[in-house]
Amino acid sequence: METATKPNHIGRKISRIRELRGMKQETLAEELGISQQAVSKIEQSEKIEDEKLEQIANVLGVTKESIEKFSDEAVLNIISNTFNDSSILNGINFQPNFNPLDKVLELYDEKEKLYERLLQAERDKITYLEKLLKEK
């Protein structure tokens, strides 16, 4: 059985990376100093000059090689293997390996100790100043 190889369509890869970055064609065009229509034409092209690809990669914040090797399947695999809906808190993967209440209590204890040290420093200062006044 023969497997069909997917063409290495660089334009589609650029389009997908741009979309994943939340960038519009107009924004990419503006950053590259070209028109939106030119970006559309690039995204329809199967091959792109290395120099132009390097410029696009810089604007997208990726390397030229990452565009060339990009695949939707890899992105989907990464997302499906790392997504755990019970651990998402405001879009941040949050899985504490400690009890947050214990940390709050520790912070409270630290605050009390710090307050006591501050009070002691003030007492020492008052004692020192009283001693200086008595000497005069």
From TrEMBL:
GO molecular function, a single term: DNA binding
Name of this chain's protein: Helix-turn-helix protein
Keyword terms of this UniProt record: DNA-binding
Pfam families: HTH_3
InterPro entries: Cro/C1-type_HTH (IPR001387), Lambda_DNA-bd_dom_sf (IPR010982)
Organism: Mariniflexile fucanivorans
Domain HTH cro/C1-type as annotated: residue spans: 14-67
Protein origin, superkingdom: Bacteria
